[in-house]
Fold rRNA methyltransferase 2, mitochondrial.
Amino acid sequence: MSGGAGSPDFFYREAQRLGYVARSAFKLLQMQKQYKLITPGSSVLDLGCAPGAWLQVACQSLGPINNGGAVVGIDIKKVKVPSMHCDARVQTVCADVMNLPKEQIRALSPKQKGFSVILSDMCPLVSGITTRDAALSAELGMRALGLAVGEAVLVQSDDKVEEKFQSDGSGSVPKHPGILLPGGHLVVKLLESEDVKEFSQICKPLFRKTSWLRPKATRSCSREIYLICQGLSSLRVLQQLPLSLSLGLWIRRKI
Ligand SMILES: C[S@@+](CC[C@H](N)C(=O)[O-])C[C@H]1O[C@@H](n2cnc3c(N)ncnc32)[C@H](O)[C@@H]1O
């Protein structure tokens, strides 16, 4: 019997040994090792945070408490902040991310300015119908992206917004489009499907770098994959991107 990283319950046992509430901790630990998304002082929003393993890794990544920083977790399920690896910088909110107004989420960030890292590990209740599950997961992913870069304006049904973008290509993005700070990072979990490629095409021009990651701790039977988006462009750059519009159009097409 093998006890290495290839064995089915290796990450489960390691999570128990190290005091993490779920094996998913190792997915964020791998992201941290490869991309260093969370640094001392970061303000982290963790969408779909139950049972709290990413809260633990996020808080650990902030370093000692006097370095500052904050972690806000939101989940439909009520989540108690784990006692291990978390401190007073971690808080959780029980709510449906699909319905919670963006400004209410922004209000949870330090000085209400927004977050420097947004993580979405949200996942629908898997039905086993591959296309349905992938579509639901894309919807959750789009919500995370929309919150980060400002879906609310881009998807509003006011045709004037669309006309303005189309007429001169310089449609004005509002002053506070999303809740991810310029230079910030976004991680989105998706279930593999045709839509996944399109999703990354939309993200690419908005961020300095985008990469796909299938973490070692992902179960072999799972179709999950993470899009890591690093370095959100500044507002000035976003305003000049005609592709910002396609996010809105794409979301509108899908929902
Ligand atoms: C895979 S779990 C997250 C695991 C978590 N990252 C951890 O390490 O402990 C996915 C979570 O997404 C949550 N979720 C799914 N849809 C949601 C929604 N619309 N709003 C808030 N949470 C949602 C589920 O309740 C579930 O707890």
Observations:
- Confidence is low (pLDDT under 50) at residues 152-171.
- The domain at 24-254 is CATH 3.40.50.150 (Rossmann fold).
- Residues 22, 24, 48-54, 74-77, 96-98, 121-123, 140 surround S-adenosylmethionine (CB under 6 Å).
- Strands lie at 43-47, 70-75, 90-94, 115-120, 180-191, 207-213, 224-232.
